[in-house]
Here is the input.
Amino acid sequence: MTDDEIVLSDRKKQILLSAVEDYIQEASPITSSVIQHKCAKDLSTATLRNELNALEAMGYLKQLHTSSGRVPTSKGYRFYVNSMMGDLPLDKDVLAEIHALFEKRTVYLGDMINEIASVISKATNYPTIVMMKGFEKLVIKNIKIIPLLTKQALILIETNSGVISNSMEAQDTIPQQSYIDASNLLTQTFQNCTVAEMIKGMEGHKQEMSKQLSEFSVIFDTVIKSLSSLVDRLSQNGHITAKGELKLLGNPEYSDPEKAKQVIDILSNPNEIKEVFEEDTTSDISFKIGNEIPVKELKDCSIAQADYKVDGESIASIGIIGPQRMDYAKIASALKFVVGEFENMKALTHEEKEEKGEQ
Here is the structure.
């Protein structure tokens, strides 16, 4: 909290919050008559003007033109966000689709990420980005290796967050039953380990497991090579999904297509997106407003971000990008719900392990 926020009187706070809320909903400059009607009927026009002038002098509001009404500044939006984050409503009806996605725990993880991004974008009416940052941290539930007709085999790893899929080379000389037996043995050995633990421990288990069937050695070598390559690739680039970019055009701030294009170009650039999500959040949900965003082309935007963490490390970041006049409460509600579903999934995984008597 800054010194300016400490000295704001209750009346100034009420006026400022009402002004920001009205501007978010109406996208029209704030006037003293509107504020007086909504939250300051007991104040004289002169007193209200003095309060608005003071808020402008303190940097919370600004006038676009001398004779026009006021609009919130980045500082004004920041005060609004800090004030409303203590008690967020949850619009579970709007976000019922998200809950359904998490219930389908066997869907492909990439598909689930795409769907989550689409549903959040639809619910908030802003572009949404989901970036997976820790595939190697996911917990293994089941492993299947399925040989195909193209001298390739499909690796399906069911995790606590969905199914990871990758391909590997397959040899005609190895019978299909060997792949089935190898799948069962891998599942028995590495169930409830992370992907990283399996890759690290594969070498130690390989010799022992290979004694049971000679073809296993070739299969295991190919599996670990394929998974190591997948994890390295995802660790470097992440798995980034962006949805709803064109929704920017529905906001008056982006009625100029060139201005919208500048933001859309950022959303299509993985390096720029990684820079935006560079710092992990210290709370479930955070907002970057204006110059708080490290990418200068987004200085007129706001970004809402939720990080899903396991053991203090971020596994996924979900971000919503829009104008500074975004509906912060609705967006925070959507992100809070998603993080809650991730937590429910993690709790369910722990319960399953406890039922099996595992630590």
In short: Residues 185 and 292 are 50 Å apart (CA to CA). The longest helix spans residues 328-355. The chain has three domains: 3-84, 96-134+238-355, 136-237.
